[in-house]
Amino acid sequence: VQLQACGGGLVQTGGSLRLSCAVPSSLDYYAIGWFRQAPGKEREGISCISSSGGTKYYADSVKGRFAISRDNAKNTVSLQMNSLKPEDTAVYYCRASGALGVYWGQGTQVTVSS
Q: Residues with Cβ < 8 Å from 74, sequence gap 6 or more?
């Protein structure tokens, strides 16, 4: 079982990007989280959405700028990132967590130039 994240790229400060995570249908009942890891730093959780999409979490560092959404019909979880800052530069990962374990996707690089 593998998740696939995409949508990263290079953007200027203040710009926007939309990341997508393809979630296998077998993980429809799993919560999906977005994490990021900047060079020399630990991986941090920045946003999470419940299996139904009804509960969402944002880290303080992204609250008000990022928005997570989920479309189970399309097996996709998205992270809309607005007002990007250089400190948002990192490799972004999606992760599914549930009763049977934790599954990570490969990362996608986001670079915000100043």
A: none
* Chain segment 23-73, per-residue pLDDT in tens: 998 898 999 999 999 999 999 999 999 999 999 999 999 999 999 999 989
Tell me the sheet residues that pair with 83: none
Q: How far apart are CA 54 and CA 21, in angstroms?
A: 18
Per the CB < 8 A criterion, the answer to whether 111 and 11 are in contact is yes
pLDDT per residue over 43-57, tens digit each?
Answer: 999 999 999 999 999
- Residue 61: how many other CB atoms lie within 10 Å: 13
- How far apart, in whole angstroms, are the C-alpha atoms of residue 44 and residue 93? 10
